[in-house]
Amino acid sequence: MRCPEDADGGACVWGRVEGFDGGAVQVRGLHIVLAGLTVPGRKDLCASRAAKEEFDCARPTRKRMAELVSKGVACDVVDVGSGQLWGRCRVADGDLGRLLVQAGVARAAKDGPYGDSQKQAVAAKRGLWAADMVLPRDWETARRKAEDED
């Protein structure tokens, strides 16, 4: 994955991912937080009614992230604030944030670009939006809101 030659003059960083968590990647020594989405925290517990087990809600996010970033990323830095770099990243399959939200393992930020992707994931009951999932309160509120908008 490489940055496009015709970048909008902003900073673009590309290469192999050196590390990641559900909501950020590290590329060329830079920690870039994905703009436009929210991921569950490691301390958030989810449960599957079918399996009757609790698990770290961020686990499915990290698993999907590992699959998507395996061939590298290209990240446009869109904001720098509070000591953080915020970016929109692309992987071989497309926009990384959109892919995570569509898979149901990340939630669209309130004013972000992924609202429609979240509605699709909720309607399709993908990932953490699956019907048998017991979610933390704020995620459950987001699910109800998305279902009410349809």
What's the short story on this structure?
With 150 residues, the chain is of the alpha+beta class. It is built from four helices and twelve strands; from the N terminus they run E-E-E-E-E-E-E-H-E-E-E-H-E-H-E-H.
Contiguous uncertain segments of 5+ residues: none
Taking the sheet with the most strands, its summary is: 7 strands, mixed
CATH architecture: Beta Barrel
| Class computed from helices, strands and strand pairing | alpha+beta
Q: What's the order of the H and E elements?
A: EEEEEEEHEEEHEHEH
Domain count: the total is: 1
Assembly annotation: single chain
**What global shape is seen?**
globular
User: Can you count the helices?
Assistant: 4
Helical amount: 25-40%
User: Measured on Cα atoms, how large is the radius of gyration?
Assistant: 16 Å
Instruction: Report how far apart the termini are.
Output: 36 Å
Strand content: 25-35%
CATH class: Mainly Beta
Q: How many β-strand stretches?
A: 12
The fold-level CATH name is: OB fold (Dihydrolipoamide Acetyltransferase, E2P)
Please state the average pLDDT score. Answer: 89
What does this molecule look like?
The structure is a single chain. With 150 residues, this protein is of the alpha+beta class. The chain has a single domain (12-149), classed as OB fold (Dihydrolipoamide Acetyltransferase, E2P) (Beta Barrel). The chain has helices at 59-69, 96-102, 115-123, 137-149; strands spanning 12-15, 17-21, 24-27, 30-34, 37-38, 45-48, 53-56, 73-81, 84-91, 94-95, 107-108, 133-134. The strands form 3 sheets. Strands 1, 2, 3, 4, 8, 9 and 10 form a 7-stranded mixed β-sheet that branches. Strands 7-6-12 form a 3-stranded antiparallel β-sheet, with no helix packed on it. A hairpin with a 2-residue loop joins strand 3 and strand 4 (30-34). Helix 2 packs parallel to helix 3 (115-123) and helix 3 (115-123) packs across helix 4 (137-149). The protein starts with 11 loop residues before the first strand and ends with a helix.
